[in-house]
Every structure is written in C-alpha cells, then in structure tokens.
C-alpha cells in the first residue's frame, strides 16, 4: 500500500512547489513575478508595477511573549514583510492590511501596544495601515500582514537571473539574529552588552530598503533575495531559480565581533553555523558581474563578496580554500 505523504515529508518548500505548479495552470492574466519569489508583482499601468507580499507570525513558532514585548512583536511583524519588498528591488511601500487572531482573554493593553509597535515601523518606512480583519483564536496569537507597494518595472529584480561567473554578494553580517534566539532559548539571566546586541538583532530587525533601492536602480545586480530563511537557504534559492550552482568562501562571510565573542564564551561554537543556518537576518543576498564590484561598493559600503556562481549545480563551501562539510538547513516549517 502506498504511504500517504504528510507535510513533514515534503517540508515548507516542497509544499510551495506543489502549490506553485497547481496554481500556475489557473493564472489567466499577465503576472510579472509569481509564486517562487519574495513577493508578487503585476503591471498596474505603463511602466509601473504593483508589488504585494504576505507573511504570518504565529505565537510559540515565530515569537514568544516571555521573550518579546508586544511592541517588539508588532514592530517585527511589519519589518519582516518590508524585507520581502526590499528583496524585490526599489519598491515603495504604500499600504498594509493586518489580520489578527487573538484569544478572548488577551488584554486590551496588549493589543494596543502591539499596534503601537506596528505603527512605529510604518512611520519609519512611510507605510499606512488601511484595514484588515480581527478574529478570536482558542490559544495562540496569529498575526497576518499583507503589504502593498509600487515599483518601476525596470527596478524589479528576481531571484532567477544569476549567471555563471557572477559574484555572490551580501549586504551585512550574518548569524546575529540566530545567536540572539539561542541566547533567549538559553535564558541568560544577565546578558552582557554584546548579548543584548544579538538579542535586539533578533527582536527588532531592520529591512534593507535603502540598499535595495540603490542596488536595483544601479542596473548592476543580476539577482536579489533577502535572507529571512538563512544565508544557506538564500543561496540555494538563487541557484535553484537561476539553474546554476555556487562556490562560497566561508571566511568572507561577515561575522560580527559580538557573535564571535558569544561563540567563544559558550564552548567554541562555530559562528559559520549561525551565519548559514540562523535565519531571520533580513540582509540582502545578490549577484553581479565581477567588473561592477567597485561601483557597487561605493553604493553600499557594507557589501562583501562571498563567492561565485557556477554552471555546475550544487553549492560547495570552502574555508581558506579547503572544502568544508556541515549541515546546511536553515529554518523550514513542517520539518
């Protein structure tokens, strides 16, 4: 008898592929960017495109009230969605719809502070909450955010256009958010200033909208994604969608001094493991021609070149020229 597959057999990304294949057959209208990228895009009028993204945060999966204030949870719920817009290039955020599911016993003050956090992020990035829906849940809080933005069609950058010979670039350090989560799970009673920095990176992420705008308008980058699922996963998505491979030099991945210190403190843990698999960084991962690196460096001084796109499928990791093997998972729902 054939075993019935369940979601944990195929994982989040297997489920996305299934939905993508099924839905694609039914789409009858022109779509500029569909399922499989960080956001959806379709032409509004000549030269202008609507860009839409949705993300959900579930209590005890994406956040815990014991670790984060309602303000921080609200702020992050907007920030992570803005990062998906940044991953599409120079997108101007416009409107936000909030779906909120909460138990009836939730205090009014909690919800008020949750929205204060949302509005703080909206104000910072010139975004307006214009509607949504509220429902009761039996136990856990559910926050569903839909963001709508607008972009010049020429400035929308997809994951799928990297070419062999392109360099693989990142906008900033990796591993800090995963380290912050590790510290909260550990329950550090008196976190040092370095540990507080790492925890803050997890609780209050900052989307790279300005960097994405500069990069996409430059016309110098060939593919773009954010690192919400971890650096290893982001590289995998770019290579899969571009039908290519990659060679990554681990020593070139930016690692913060705070992360290095924490790894040493807690038993010489591997900072590269946090960098590749930590997730929820919201940095940009992108590709460009090698000749354009100096120009890009002037636009985004924090840029680092960490590898090369290859014609041979698969991703190989090296540390100072020596091939290194370790688990590269990132976060995936259902598994």
Count of all domains: 2
Unreliable parts = none
CATH homologous superfamily caption of the largest domain: PurM-like C-terminal domain
Number of helices: 10
In helices, the fraction of residues equals 25-40%
Give the class from helix and strand content and strand pairing: alpha+beta
* CATH architectural type of the largest domain: Alpha-Beta Complex
According to CATH, what is the class of the largest domain? Alpha Beta
- Report the β-strand fraction as a percent range: 25-35%
Give me the count of strands: 12
Mean pLDDT score, rounded?
Answer: 90
CATH topology of the largest domain: Phosphoribosyl-aminoimidazole Synthetase, Chain A, domain 2
Question: What characteristic shape results from the CA principal axes?
Answer: globular
**What string gives the helices and strands in order?**
HEEHEHEEEHHHEHEHHEHEEE
Description:
This protein has 335 residues and is an alpha+beta fold. It is 36% helix and 27% strand. It folds into two domains: 31-156, PurM-like, N-terminal domain (60s Ribosomal Protein L30, Chain: A); 159-323, Alpha-Beta Complex (Phosphoribosyl-aminoimidazole Synthetase, Chain A, domain 2), CATH 3.90.650. The protein has helices spanning 7-24, 70-86, 108-124, 176-186, 193-203, 209-218, 231-242, 257-265, 271-277, 293-299, and strands at residues 40-45, 48-58, 89-102, 128-136, 142-156, 167-170, 221-226, 245-249, 284-288, 304-310, 314-319, 322-323. α5 (193-203) packs across α8. The longest helix has 18 residues, at 7-24. The two termini are 24 Å apart. The model has no long low-confidence stretch (mean pLDDT 90).
